[in-house]
Amino acid sequence: MSQNPRHPAASFAAASAAMPLPNALPSIAALATSQGVPPAGSPTEPVLDIHDIQGNSLVGFNSDAQAFLFFRIDEVAAAKRSLRALLPRVATVEEVLAFRRLYRALRARRGRVAGSVAATWLNLAVSSPGIAKLTSQDEADRFTSDAFKLGMAARAALLGDDTDVHGNPVGWMVGHKAMTPDLLVILASDSVEALEAELERVCAMVAGLTLQHVERGHNLPGRLSGHEHFGFKDGISQPGVRGRVSDAPTDFLTPRLIDPSDPLALSHAKPGQPLVWPGQFVLGRQYPVQSALDEVTPQVNVDPQPAWAVNGSFLVFRRLTQNVPGFWKFARDMATELAGKHPSLAGLTATHFASLLVGRWPSGAPIMRTPDADDEAMAAHRIAVNDFQFALATPSVKLLPEAADPPDQFSAAPADDEGVRCPFGAHVRKVNPRDDTTELGGSERTLLKRILRRGIPFGMALADPMRPSRSKADRGLLFVSYQASIEDQFEFLMTDWANSIVNPRAYPGAADDIPAGHDPIIGQQGSPNRQRTFTLPIDGVPTTFTVPRDFVTTTGGGYFFAPSITALKTVLST
Ligand code: N7H
Question: Measuring from atom 46 of ligand 1, which residue has the nearest CA?
Fold first, then answer.
């Protein structure tokens, strides 16, 4: 392990002010107590190449402050020297996971960790033009993803973004024709000062590169901590990536919290968190992908093209500006209108209406479990907050003793195959319909569409997002996702589900199906008519209304590839 004090991983061992920590990184094995017990009949999971895969993909930095540095390569030889210089700072899955486990161990023992451990991380990604510059056009062309090769701006119209008559995105600050980055450097830290210091160091270290654009993201302050700008808790539901981080049979990347005697343990890490084979997120024949036939059996993967893409992952970046006052004005107006028109909705609040659009209350509590009012205690319970499904009643699950304390005694989610409790169009039901049968078929197919989300808000928060405001300040989400296929995962979620009024599910009508409408958060009706619809079942009758304008607007973006450490060392910087 590197002892270089400037190495980001080394910096977390040194950062403990409150408690002396060992000089070197604690080994993961030392911290890995049991990560769960696989039930009999579980398929063997591959050992992930945790020294070679970048850490933000499979684990996630989850830091309070992040910076996204977009560079153009002007001088190839100097740019390669810069990459070589940055290489020791690139955080791997091993390092980020070691930190995560240390953090969890301290929190379990001491209750809180604030200030005792800190880390500053760096990860790198390259665009297709960047790869062409660092290797050759032929090499860049060997990637099989057309979306990646074309870039996000060329896909803007397909994604439903606002575009001009030539199909070019309108209003983008980064990633448009005049500013197509070659290289993306992501910095992350829990301290803004440490982040800014690292940003300066990185800029001073590199040559042959022009810094085109910087985005700064941060956890929102005060009671909005962990929430996005509309005021809803974010970062709750992620797929559980299968795979082990050492040869030990139970050293799983994703801790398993279900008792092995419970049948759900075969397919889930914990209730609400299905296990997904790692080939859905990282490239390589050694990592199986999901099968379209059942949720457990691994499906053989293929070698990536080019071969050096192994252990890499596609990174989608989207700068999403949020119109917070507009969103809440719409929610207030609709709540008043619906409450006035329908006696059964008398007393409907803007918060309740907005929660029906999201599928969760601002605290994060799922409306499937608490349909009438927010429930902060449910949201704070680490199992209850994500233990729900849609079509069938959610069964009770036997957890391992440490996960069952305190027990989840909140009311369980009933079956909602009719989309009455949680509208089919609600954001979280659109982008992850869980056990719903979709236009693709059985729910096992939804697992092929899962992504790893690593976004962070940007811009100043409104003190109270729900209160009327004339603020026009630029704020939103720096959306980041990792996946093995841009087309089949991120683009699918946008084009086939969020932007579709009928998929993944519609309401059955007497003659024809009644559309569920767009995803009211991220769904887009392409240019020039951006008017959307949403369907809410009222007194058992699916009732469709208009959503007048986008509350989330794309103001930049790009498709990148996060290569392995080996590829950075042996292909991209030589
Ligand atoms: Fe979404 N929001 O505040 O309404 N999202 N999202 N998202 N999102 C989620 O479970 C939000 C965006 C997904 O497994 C929550 O972590 C906003 C894009 C997926 O149950 C909330 C923006 C895409 C999930 C929001 C935005 C997705 C998810 C609940 C943009 C993909 C997990 C918290 C500004 C194309 C669903 C949580 C599951 C959850 C919001 C963007 C996808 C509150 C404001 C672009 C897969």
Answer: 431
Calpha distance 556→169 (Å, rounded): 8
Q: Does ligand 1 have an atom closer than 6 angstroms to the CB of 220?
A: no
Residue 451 Cα to ligand 1 midpoint, Å, equals 11
Sheet holding 273-276, edge to edge: 240-241, 273-276, 268-270
Q: Please, which residues have CB within 8 angstroms of residue 197's CB and are 6 or more apart in sequence?
A: none
Ligand 1 mutation target, pool 522, 547, 550, 553, most atoms within 8 A of CB: 522
Task: Give the position of tokens 């079956």.
Answer: 415
- Give dist(CA 525, CA 162) in Å, integer: 9
Closest Cα partner for 419 from 304, 541, 332, 522? 541
What confidence score (pLDDT) does residue 104 get? Answer: 82
Residue 494, ligand 1, Cβ within 6 A: yes
pLDDT tens string 376-429 = 999 999 999 999 999 999 999 999 998 999 999 999 999 999 999 999 999 999
| Strand spans (E) along 160-208 | 183-189
| pLDDT < 50 regions, the chain | 1-26
Run of H or E residues at 33: none
Q: What's the distance, Cα to Cα, between the start and end of the chain in Å?
A: 24
**The pairing of beta strand 456-458 with beta strand 476-483:** antiparallel
Residue 489, token pair as written in the block: 């995962």
Using the mean position of ligand 1's atoms as its centre, give its distance from the Cα of residue 428 in Å: 6
Q: Which of 228, 321, 490 to mutate to test the pocket of ligand 1 (most atoms within 8 A of CB)?
A: 228
* Closest Cα to atom 27 of ligand 1: 431
Buried residues in 446-484 as b, exposed as e (16+ CB within 10 A): bbbbbbbbbbbbbbebbeebbeebeeeeebbbbbbbbbb
pTM of the model: 0.95
Find out whether the beta carbon of 226 lies less than 6 Å from any atom of ligand 1. no
State how far the Cα of 449 lies from the Cα of 272, in Å rounded to an integer: 16
Measured distance CA(480)–CA(17) in Å, rounded: 32
Question: Which residue's C-alpha comes closest to atom 25 of ligand 1?
Answer: 234
Contact 431 CB / ligand 1 (< 6 Å): yes
In degrees to the nearest 10, what's the CA dihedral of 186, 192, 197, 202? 10
> What pLDDT is attached to residue 60?
98
DSSP 447-496: GGG--EE--EEESPPPSSTTS--------EEEEEEEES-IIIIIIHIIII
Query: For position 1, what pLDDT does the model report?
Result: 30
How far does the centroid of ligand 1 lie from the alpha carbon of residue 6, in Å?
35
Tell me, in angstroms, the distance from the centre of ligand 1 to residue 536's CA: 19
Judge if the upstream peptide bond of residue 343 is cis by omega within 30 degrees of 0.
no
Max CA distance (Å), the chain: 71
Which region holds residue 46: left if phi is over 0, alpha if psi is between -120 and 50, else beta?
Answer: beta
pLDDT of residue 117: 77
Dist. CA 186–CA 201, nearest whole Å: 13
